[in-house]
Design a protein that fits this description.
It holds the Pfam family Adenine_glyco. By secondary structure, the chain is an all-alpha fold. 63% of the residues lie in helices and 0% in strands. The chain has twelve helices and no strands.
């Protein structure tokens, strides 16, 4: 890419809000974590701008990123998803969303949920996170795992030190910052 996201996103009509209010901020809400995981998987091979433009389509077709609903999408709901130009129509990615939703359901019993599972394994180096995500979920390449963890405040690097958003992220006490205190 050459440029950092902080150099191009502020003020951008598509990226601006995401950069300023979401990217790198800690998340502990299950459906918001699941949303970020879905969007990162959907982005594989595509641009982040396209995914942000299709975000509402995903929200609509995936029941507001409700883990329990996505885990049990009917054949008709899957067909509607794959026919909708408002989402990334990819059968393998849709199957991964459903599989990963079922995995998150299982994490409720073992760790109290997705956020609890993440917290229980923190801190890990990125390479170990990649192994853990690949063992637990589907469609988990190094870029997807790394971006998911940076975008949710688990790993550092979402913003440059000079970016004004970085101060607000530090005030929100992301997991990566807790280990440096």
């Amino acid at each position: 890419m050459g440029q950092h996201y902080c150099d191009v996103a502020p003020g951008h009509p598509v990226h601006g809000h995401y950069h300023d209010y979401e990217y790198g901020f800690p998340i502990d809400d299950e459906s918001r974590l699941f949303e970020r995981l879905v969007l990162e998987i959907a982005q594989a091979g595509l641009s982040w701008e396209l995914i942000l433009k299709k975000r509402e389509g995903f929200r609509h077709r995936l029941a507001g990123f409700d883990v329990d609903r996505v885990a049990t999408l009917s054949e008709a709901e899957q067909a509607a998803f794959l026919a909708d130009p408002g989402v990334v129509r990819n059968r393998l990615k849709l199957k991964a969303f459903m599989h990963n939703a079922r995995c998150i359901q299982d994490l409720r019993a073992s760790h109290g949920g997705f956020a609890g599972w993440i917290a229980a394994h923190h801190p890990l180096p990125k390479e170990e996170w990649i192994k853990l995500f690949r063992k637990t979920f589907k469609f988990m390449g190094p870029e997807i795992v790394g971006e998911f963890l940076m975008s949710t405040g688990v790993l550092p690097g979402a913003h440059q030190a000079k970016c004004p958003v970085q101060r607000r992220i530090l005030d929100a006490n992301p997991l990566w910052h807790q280990e440096t205190k």
